[in-house]
Amino acid sequence: MYPFIRMAKELVINRKASKLSPTGTHVSRHMCLPWDIDLWAELNNGRTLTIYDLGRIPLAQRTGLIGVLRRQRWGLTVAGVSVRYRRRIRMFDVVEMRSRLVGWDEKFIYLDQSMWRKDGACANQGLYRTAVTGRDGIIPPAQVAAALGANPTSPPLPDWIRAWITAEDQRPWPPKQD
Predict the structure, then answer these.
(1) Matching PANTHER family, A to Z (predicted)?
(2) Cβ distance 61 to 14 under 8 Å?
């Protein structure tokens, strides 16, 4: 089940937090609860993606994006994600999540999220390809930035993100059936 109560808590906690620039980093803390674990008593890989929502949505709130979405009647969607899992997160472990917008291209917005353990080790990292949507499809990110009062020109995307974009562009869609 989606963690509606946890999301409400994050939105309430962050409603009066200082505003962030569109590329600012939102830092939050989360505990791995019993319903977040798998058969090996560690954070389930699918649940990791859901918990990342608890960082992305407050990030959107703190940057002012949620207000723009409401005024324009736009929505948000995830168009792709690549996650690296490197360290275990066990039940009742508390992690620090860092969420930030890295940049955009003509169609998509790229977000970097990571979870850090108390020992300073990065447990996992997700690269998200997201989009703002309207009635007629995807809203160009430059238009979204302008609606936020930000520079419509993206910061330069790091080489590793550009390489991922290139790889995703080569991936067949729809998938080929053998």
Answers:
(1) PROTEIN THEM6, PTHR12475
(2) yes
Domain ranges of the chain: 4-170
4: Cβ contacts below 8 Å, ≥ 6 apart: none
Q: Whole-prediction pTM value?
A: 0.94
Residue 130 bridge partners (DSSP): 78, 109
The SS3 call for residue 153 is coil
Does residue 176 carry a pLDDT above 90?
no
- pLDDT-based confidence at 4, cuts 50/70/90? very high
Per-residue pLDDT reduced to its tens digit, 63-118: 999 999 999 999 999 999 999 999 999 999 999 999 999 999 999 999 999 999 99
Tell me if 141 sits within 8 A of 109, measured CB to CB: yes
Q: Tokens 């291209």 map to which residue? A: 105
Q: Which of 47, 25, 36 is nearest to 113 (CA)?
A: 25
**CATH topology for the 4-170 domain:** Thiol Ester Dehydrase; Chain A (3.10.129)
Report phi then psi at 92, rounded to 5. 75, 0
